[in-house]
Amino acid sequence: MLAELGLHYRVLPIDITSGDQFGAEFLKISPNNKIPAIVDHDGPGGNPISIFESGAILLYLAEKTGKLLPTEVRARTNALQWLMFQMGGVGPMLGQAHHFRRYAPEQIQYAVDRYTNEATRLYGVMDRQLANSEYLAGDYSIADIATFPWIRLHRWQGQDLQDFPNLKRWFDAIKARSAVEEGLAVMSETKRWEAKPGTASWKNMFDAKA
């Protein structure tokens, strides 16, 4: 989003496997100890503002710049409902698919099937929408920006994009955007991690305090 808008930004990596997200300074910015979070030093009235939750960040930046979110009521509502579809469905359900397929300390077949099947259903919803629309809400918007990162990990969710041709076309088009390439390059420069059950990294990500 920041690259799409051409805004200057500085990345401060938070190592969630080492427990950086529980530090007092970070909790002032993100009280739910999750990433991403941002600080805009040129916020409303010229004063700094911190924002957590990706949907809230995207809305703030869209409204700050007047870009990637329509102002006309019907078009804006359409974009917002697909953003909420990501926040209420795609993110939580695909995140559970990731957990039970890759990170759970024991293989629980019911959970694997439950969230893999739900991922398949959500992919179908998007594929049908994209049969008649170039992007989720018509024009490229914050709804697409919120959803794309989850679809990058389709194999983690037991999905094959070849089964969803409209979604694959959408995915390939977004992946080719220069701003998306910039964002992925930033991510590739940060630490890679793999949390295995029983390790300190796993506990920092998944135990009760996390």
From TrEMBL:
- Tell me where in this chain the GST N-terminal domain is found: 1-69
Q: Where is the GST C-terminal domain?
A: 72-199
InterPro entries membership: Glutathione-S-Trfase_C-like (IPR010987), Glutathione-S-Trfase_C_sf (IPR036282), Glutathione_S-Trfase (IPR040079), Glutathione_S-Trfase_N (IPR004045), GST_C (IPR004046), Thioredoxin-like_sf (IPR036249)
Q: Which domain of life is it from?
A: Bacteria
Q: Which Pfam families match?
A: GST_C, GST_N
Q: Would you identify the family this protein belongs to, as annotated?
A: Belongs to the GST superfamily.
Query: What is the name attached to this protein's record?
Result: Glutathione S-transferase, C-terminal domain protein
Native species? Afipia felis ATCC 53690
